[in-house]
Amino acid sequence: MNNFQKEFMMSMFLDNDNVCTINRLVVAVANIVNENNENINTFYKSLPKEFHQTSQTGDNRCSLTPITRRIKGFYENTVRNYTDEDYIVKFKMRKSTVQALIKFLKNYVKPGIISLDKKVHVFLWLLVSDCSYNDVGNLFGMHKSSVSYIFHEIATHLKEQRYNFVTWPSVEEQHITRIKVNSRFKFPNCVGFIDACRFKVGSKRNKKDKPDIVLLQAVCDESLMFIDIHVSEVGKTKKNRVFKESPLAQELKNFVEFENHILGDSDYKLRKNLITPFTSEELLTSEEMKFNEIHWKTRSYIGHAFEIMKERFRKLNHIDIVKPESVQLIIYSACILHNFILMHEGCSEVKEEAVTCEDPVTINTSIVQNAIEKRQFLCNYINYIDKEDP
């Protein structure tokens, strides 16, 4: 100890006016800083445990508990010990489904410093929560740039392999769909349901700018599986315009035979294989109103599919990403994972009902030749069946 240090320590115990009060102030500040450091270290040691307990409530919103410092060992010590119940609460899917996803991606993702298991969990955490890259990075002990890279890597591979999970059904599969739909809702020859879902896009921090809108156009079947998806350019909000610009507009006539059709709302233009409800400035007839009612109930499949996906992947509630290509990636990834989960877990919301009508309705093409005539034929058939039922 040098002379200055000795004099400084001695002055702490002298009670006279010659003692430099600044020395006492320095010691007091040092004590406060030391005490705060101990509190902060205690806080960060307990944070992973508290975060795990919070996860049991099913609330993934990082905005409620912002993480401003990287946590070591959260994935290794906490996530890897999650039970199947924890996975359902935290990742909105079973543990076995996540393992199946990892097994599938092993064929496409090259080995790296970060294990594929951890990458997939980081990617899923980003989708099922409203956490930012920085929040997820701090939680999993990595820089936000690493999280961004992981997201783009996994999402890109999923998009490239989307036709393994999002495919138009075969003729045999379409036959099963129209039988089930007709048995449940009495709407004949329906093989799918089309609609578009709006997503907010843009920074959450800039409150002055209104978020942009991007549309996801999707067709689903009776099992709520997406059989066709298309993401619009940011800012395009007209459903029929997005449909015209999508590949489906040209391919639909090849996908769906004349007797069959998909159902869409009045925002779409009536086509031979895309049946929309009656709209008129004049009053509709009772038969047309009945047709519209059954059409609306039958078309509810697609709305239900969107609801399940948005509830599972909370990132879609407001996509806090600026780059258009990244926005498309995250939406495509959500759709693909939606189907992946249904393929491995099924859907508890879809009830298996007894098939009461096995034969499709035959439409005479010599009489019914265009979209207007076809809709009128379906209207007449639905009203006839309704009168026949007790």
Automatic annotation (TrEMBL):
A single GO molecular function term of this UniProt record: nuclease activity
Q: List required co-factors.
A: a divalent metal cation
Record's Gene Ontology CC terms?
Answer: nucleus
Which ranges carry the DDE Tnp4 domain?
214-339
UniProt keyword list = Hydrolase, Metal-binding, Nuclease, Nucleus
Q: Record's PANTHER family?
A: GH03217P-RELATED, PTHR22930
Protein known as: Protein ALP1-like
What organism is listed for this UniProt entry? Trichoplusia ni (Cabbage looper)
Taxonomy of the source species: Eukaryota, Metazoa, Ecdysozoa, Arthropoda, Hexapoda
